[in-house]
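User: Here's a chain of 159 residues. Predict its fold as C-alpha cells.
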Amino acid sequence: MEKTLLPPIPVKRYFTIGEVAELCGVKPHVLRYWEQEFTQLRPMKRRGNRRYYQHHEVLMIRRIRDLLYDQGFTISGARNKLQEMVQFERERRKAGEVPLEGMEAVEIDREEFEAALQEDMETHEHDDESAGGPGLDVSQLLRLRRELHEIRELLGPNH
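Assistant: Prediction complete.
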C-alpha cells in the first residue's frame, strides 16, 4: 500500500479531534475507536467531553495509522507492536544507551517558535482556560524537547 503524505504538525500545545483527524488522515470516529483499542492513547477531556490531544499523541496516532494502514497490522498486532516499542525503549534507557544513530538535535528557531506559540495562545484565548493556560516556560520547553526526542526514537527511522 502506498504511504500517504501527511501535513506537518504545527507548533501548538493542544489539538482538537477535528485537527488531529486532518493531521493524521483519519476520521474523528476512528480516533474515538482507537482510544478504546490503544491504552497509550489518552487525550485530555474537558467540558462536554471535548478531546484535546497533545503533540506526542498526534505522533502516536500517526504511528498507529502507519502500522494499520501502511504496514497491514491488525488492531491486535499494532497494539502488541506499540507495547514492544515502549518496552524496548524502557530497556534501552535502563541500560543507559545513547539515542539511535541519525538522531540529531532538534534545532528550534526561537523567534518562529515564540510567534507560533503566541498565535496559538491568541487563537485559543477564549477556550476553556483549564485546557490551555498561558505559554510554556523554559523548563517546560526543555521537558517538551526531551519528550519529543523520546517520541522520535519510538517512531524509529524514516519519521
